[in-house]
Protein: Cellulose synthase-like protein G3
Amino acid sequence: MAASEGAGQKPATVLNTAEVDPLVHLNRAHAVVYSCALLALLYHRALSILDSPTLPSSLLLLALTFADLVLAFMWALAQAFRWRPVRRREFPERLAGAAGRREEDWPALDVFICTADPYKEPPVSVVNTALSAMAFDYPAQKVSVYVSDDAGSQLTLFAFMEAARFAGHWLPFCRDQGIADRCPEAYFGSPAATGGHDDEIKIMYQRMKGRIEGVLEKGSIDAEYVVSEEEVEIFKKWETGFSRQEHPSIIQVLLESSKDVDISGHPLPNLIYVSREKSKTSPHHFKAGALNVLIRVSGVMTNAPMVLTSDCDMYSNDPEAPKRALCYLLDPSMSSKLAYVQFPQRFRGINKHDIYGGELKHLYQIHPQGMDGFQGPYYLGSANFFSRTCFYYSSPPSPASPDLTSSNGCSTESHNNSIRSDMVLKKAHEVASCSYEKGTKWGSTLGIRYGSLSEDHHTGYHLHCKGWVSVFCDPPRPAFLGDVPITLNDVLSQNKRWSIGLLQVAFSKCSPLTLGVREGSLPMAMCYARYAYWASWCIPMSIYAVLPQIALAYQVPLFPKVSNRWFYLYAYLFLTAYAQDCVEFIRAQGTIRMWWNDQRMWMIRGVTSNLFGVIQFFLEKVGISGFGFNVTSKVIDDKQTQRYEGGSFDFGAESSFFVSLGTIATVNLVSLVVGIARSWTQGAIQDMAIQVLISGFVVVNCWPIYEASVLRGDEGRVPAKVIRSSVLFAGALFSVAYFVFSV
Structure:
């Protein structure tokens, strides 16, 4: 039954509703039955270990039991997502009619866009993201777009100077034509662009794009592109002693809404370029540090109550997104403790069957709905509308709480001045300096939290622990669209970084299983723990990918035979878990084929990015290696795109990830062939049936690896060096097994 989040209001002014998932009771019943089955499984494992005839088989059964315990632990944590999932609906069309919510009374909006490398994150893509935000269906004089350039690149600044000029034509075009696709690249690539005036604006866009890409290719800015003395002075800052790791802060106001207008005379949004000060002697805290600088700089310059954080490639696909967020941020029943409104991250250009599981439906859609039944979803790092208040108060403030903004970098005196004034710019440069955070609580109780490469998960977790809530807004039309990696190596590298960042939270003093339970709630702590220990999937995945298969090759039974009643317990646990996951996936607008690819990527991540992330994390803990933040490349290669769109896995890189995959693929194929042959000749098919099924299941999932190793001849095939290494490691595993089982 729909429940209003604005109790006590007239029906006409209800801005949002929430409805509990109708399958919640079925989920709870299944959880009870499945829990009993898991206990029965562990009981059977204990009996099997006690009855094991040899030491090697006992050790194998112990390893499998450990894997089962980890699987049971992760399953138990995931039940919190299924306990009370909520689906929300908002009514932005009612904002104008609600008392006290006229357009001129709406809160201002600051938009934060972060970029870190012009060669991995092309400036044209970042410009498109900014232009789509500037074109929100929202009062332009209330919108300010801040671009954080952590590379400190004059090429990125040049791109936004070009964007500022183009915005004067693009924004009135969007407004007059009433178009929904307000990202230029997306609009001109869609059937909606029909010619006429569209062609004129498209030519202007292509010229701007050509200038930006030409400058990027050359690596410098020709004098012909610098149109004023002011721009000459700006670019002089890059002439001497300027490097990516060592440079002063640069804050450049490119558009000011109180002074700059578009070609139709309407005010343009503010557009501000920010490159914070960098020094090799001061920690910069990666993206979290960049966002905290933007919080302070914007606090000095515009101080909007509403803040949108967006990845550089995550453009607006729904111009009404800010209004949808307002339906929650202006709701009196929740606004005092509402930290943020999270939209799902959706992606463009995903191939038909999503071979790399790039949509990450559990992370971005299914699980946030589950958390919305408690305190709300985790912060996903992008497509998120914050209430600025939550950056300054560790817990929701009361009306009597002191003002903490002015003492933490927000200058209230500057808000009546032009954002180009010397006083405002001086203060903005001050709060963007390396030394500003020393001796403050920024990164601990203020702003975005430090201490993890997954700053988004870490920040949302701390806000929820302190009593803040959030909501998940998932409208029918995706509010934001981004790009996904289109090579397997990039996908796994990104996941490895996430694994390390989440482990930093899991093994800190702020672990969800300690602080989360103590200061939050048990369901919320379980949800956060499920992702904090995300990398632990490597334990059961690695064990089940190798040990039953090697035991199959040497005819060592580890599971009950088909005629044994315990066989049905294992079948039930596997089939019902997969069936429930499949149903959830399809209800989230997925397909069977996409779900199959998603579960394959779950297993691939377990034996590659999760495994290597765990190894690197613990090596760092003992001082052997250090963490780094690797920017995922957004540059698209035509041949890679062609392979991706054709549904072919790209194994072209000589990556250690692929050696791990190749080793497992080889072990499973050899074990399946040898195991079936030996089981048949020895009459032990029933004894080895489950191990045959496990090995066969892995072999089926490994088909893209076999295909890329033997059948393909393109640049995406598995490199010969990787094949040799994989065969060598597989041979080593079989040699060890031979010594253990035969000697």
Q: What stands out?
A: Residues 55-83 form the longest helix (29 residues). The longest strand covers residues 109-115.
